[in-house]
C-alpha cells in the first residue's frame, strides 16, 4: 500500500514541480491518514473513512491544518482515480473547509536595521548580515538563499542570483551595492568561516542554526516578538503590496497568485490572493 504513496510523492515532485516543503507537507498528511486507516487499503477507503479521519484530526489540528490535509487527500485520490487504481473519489462528497486567513508576520524597517547591527563585525557576523540583506532584497526563502552556489553567481559576474523553482531556472537581478558585498565575501571573508571548498555560498549555514542566531539577534535588539528569517520575505512583500499587487508578483518572483496573502489590513482581497504562496513557508 505504501508504494502508492511513494509513487504519488514522486509524481508531484517530478511532474508537478512541487517544492520540497510542499512534498513534505503532503507526505505528513497522507501518513497521518495511513496510520488512521490501521491497515485498511487505500482502494477500500470510502467517504465515511475520510469523514471520520477529518473529525479525528479536529481534536489535534487547527482549521487551516485540516484544510491542508483535505487538499492532500483530494490530490492523492485524484491521482489514484486517473491511474485507474480506484473507481470513485472518496473525497468527492465532502463539504469544503475554508482556511482561516492569517496575517503573515512582518518586521518594521527600523527593526531590521537593529537586527543587522547586532550581528557584529566578526567574520560570521558579516556573513549573517549578508544572508539577511540577500533575504531582504531578493524575496527568496531562507532555504532558497542557502542553496545559492558561488559558481552560479560568478557565471553572471555577480549581477544575478540563479535558482531553480518548480523545475524552472530563474534569475534575480542584484543591485550594485549587494553585488559588491557578495563579491567581497567570496574573495576575502568566506575562507574565514568555511573550512571546505564546497560550492555553496553559505556552506555550513542551515535553516536551523541561522534561525537560532536570527532570533538571538532580535532579542539583543530588543524585539519582543518571536522572529524568524522568512519574516524578511513578508516584510518585502508588504512593501511591494503598498505599491501594487503586480509589483508583488514581479518582485517576489511569483508565477501565480492563487490562494495567497501578504500582511496588509486595507485590502482583504489581496490578502486572500497572496497568503498561501508568500505566507506559508518554513520558519
UniProtKB/TrEMBL annotation:
Keywords: DNA integration, DNA recombination, DNA-binding. Transmembrane segments: none annotated. Residues 102-276 form the Tyr recombinase domain. InterPro entries: CB, DNA_brk_join_enz, Integrase-like_cat_sf, Integrase_catalytic, Integrase_recombinase_N, Integrase_SAM-like_N, Tyrosine_recombinase_XerCD. Pfam families: Phage_int_SAM_1, Phage_integrase. GO terms for biological process: DNA integration; DNA recombination. Residues 1-81 form the Core-binding (CB) domain. It comes from the Bacteria. This is Integrase domain protein SAM domain protein. It comes from Ilyobacter polytropus (strain ATCC 51220 / DSM 2926 / LMG 16218 / CuHBu1).
